[in-house]
Design brief:
This protein has 2 domains: 189 residues, Tetratricopeptide repeat domain (Serine Threonine Protein Phosphatase 5, Tetratricopeptide repeat, Alpha Horseshoe), CATH 1.25.40.10; 84 residues, Serine Threonine Protein Phosphatase 5, Tetratricopeptide repeat. It is an all-alpha fold. The longest helix has 22 residues. The chain starts with a helix and ends with a helix. Helix 2 packs antiparallel against helix 3 and helix 12 packs antiparallel against helix 13. The chain has 14 helices and no strands.
Amino acid sequence: MKVKQELITKLRKMENVKRTIKTVVLAVVLGGVLAGCVTTVTGPYTNKASEDKAVQQYVQLGLAYYQQGDLDSALQKLQRALEIKPDNAEAQAALGLVYQRQKEPLLAEKQFKSALRSDPGFTRGRTYYAAYLYDQGRYKEAAEQLDKASEDVNYESRAQVFSNIGLIRLRLGETEQAIKAYEKSLTLKRGQPNVVLALASLYFGKGELSKANRMYAVHWETVRRGGASHTPASLALGIKIAREKKDLNEEASLMLLLKNMFPNSAEYKTMKGSS
């Protein structure tokens, strides 16, 4: 259906009323991020341009309401977008997110699939679907979707895609594939504390002490600069690496840190008992 000028005026007034609602940006999902990319309309003002603009505004408002937890309003805005353009992939995928949070898995999956049928190259929508599959415990299918998403070399969050692939491959017990995915993620974007620590742990598990020690040193420097924080698990890993290196001073220093910061943690009890 064609959108009249009155609709555009109404939407602009709505934007003024809702100006406190910020445009939503989602970057993971797996633990995850919304990214509200919209298409800029150029050229002469036409009915199609009016429709595109209206759909963009409805999708942005829908995602903003979704981020705020107002799922009823989000649903309303996204359904309105689809009334204007039934095959709009962004609106379909966003509606899938709403249904997923509403605990309507069948409806959510239907929308995610519809979005990818409408636009197979909609990488962000594919990551939404992968996150849904992961949430459903369908790890192999989630990995397949992320593998496809990783092929989009222009996707702005490609490093995060590979990081999530690493996480899922670990779930599937595929250590070597997880390592390759994490390494690729760091190649695309350095300074990811969780990825660095994951690689340190995986290298250590494989007996590659030199690589594990190098990654752990990067993690330690990130903590020192305030870009990450110690956890019981990270300190326990450092202690294990120090023991393998036979560095008694480093081991004692890390043990003291673990004791002072996390005295009641299972990691401290384990490390203390194995010293």
